[in-house]
Amino acid sequence: MMLVVGGAHSGKRTFVREKLGFAADDFVDAAQFAEGGVPAAFAGRVAYCAEELVRALDADRALERLIGFDVVILSLVGSGVVPMRAEDAQWRERAGRLGCALAARADVVVRMTCGIPQVIKGNLDDAPRGTQGAGAPLEVVFVRHGATAGTEDHRYSGAGTDEPLSSAGERALRDLACYRDVFRVITSGMARTDQTARILFPNAELMACPGLREMDFGDFEGRGAAELKEDARYRAWVDSWCETRCPHGEGKNDFTRRVVAAFREACKSERAQGSGRAVFVVHAGTVKALLSELAVPKIGYFDVHTEPGGAWAATWDGRYLRDVRPASGGDAR
């Protein structure tokens, strides 16, 4: 993540747009996220006016809303004339604390003065880049891991359940074609994705990306709908279409934002290595989150169905997934 700070009208957005290649519609006003979560489509883009977010939230909650953006723009409001109103002084204090927290997390921090950037942390070569400088499209393949005991018993097996493939799941994968000319595969790092990758792509180096793990189902982990049907918390979660958080776990928006941010970073890494293709072995929910938020034309979250060992292919242009289709054998070659 990159933090850009400076006074009002100091050239912060112009710098991010012209020097880093972000398009005008990559920018989103952070103030609008005070009352709710950040739509995952904005994760990995640019949030500006971050200081306005702490008019309604404390610095810790504001920081939670901004995690996942590639660039955060913050106006410096803590210096100058001492405000007469107590609420203005408190807002400036919160904005200062937010700036400190963002700078601690950021890989690169730039201060703008009169349109001139000064790097005060990190190296500008490591700064994120927008789609206008994204380069050639990247072909991507998403493979769902094979069946586990939890899959077969229709239990919620998420980020908190690291179970292996079942015997039947392994056999089913071995009946599929393996691709010996794929040499790098990105997994969630969980046992079931790593096992699947080793079966289908035996010559590939595995790169673990924990941000691509399945939703954290919290108290529902390892349990099925039949067992949970009398649990009022479970009924409330289902009735919300998974928008609310699982007790001690994630909600759909939190989960999707996490997955989208991790996917963007993984694709940047693949491009940096000169690859024109990225193969992911992940989870059913992960694929739902990515396709529902990034696919063009739009696909509904609950309209994405991937059987164990099933796959999707698409073209990633740095902003959207295009030409989304069920994967054929040739897509992984």
Can you offer a commentary on this structure?
By secondary structure, the chain is an alpha/beta fold. The protein has two domains: 2-131, Rossmann fold (3-Layer(aba) Sandwich); 138-332, Rossmann fold. The chain is built from eleven helices and 13 strands. The protein has helices spanning 12-20, 50-53, 59-66, 86-105, 149-152, 167-174, 191-200, 225-228, 232-239, 252-272, 284-294, and strands spanning 2-6, 27-29, 46-48, 71-75, 108-113, 116-121, 138-144, 184-187, 205-208, 277-282, 295-296, 311-316, 321-326. A seven-stranded mixed β-sheet has the order 9-8-10-7-12-13-11. A hairpin with a 4-residue loop joins strand 12 (311-316) and strand 13. Helix 10 (252-272) packs across helix 11 (284-294). 42% of the residues are buried. The model has no long low-confidence stretch (mean pLDDT 88).
What's the helix and strand layout?
Layout: E1 2-6, H1 12-20, E2 27-29, E3 46-48, H2 50-53, H3 59-66, E4 71-75, H4 86-105, E5 108-113, E6 116-121, E7 138-144, H5 149-152, H6 167-174, E8 184-187, H7 191-200, E9 205-208, H8 225-228, H9 232-239, H10 252-272, E10 277-282, H11 284-294, E11 295-296, E12 311-316, E13 321-326
Parallel strand pairs: 1-4, 1-5, 2-3, 3-4, 7-10, 8-9, 8-10, 11-13
Antiparallel strand pairs: 5-6, 7-12, 12-13
Helix pairs in contact: 3-4, 10-11
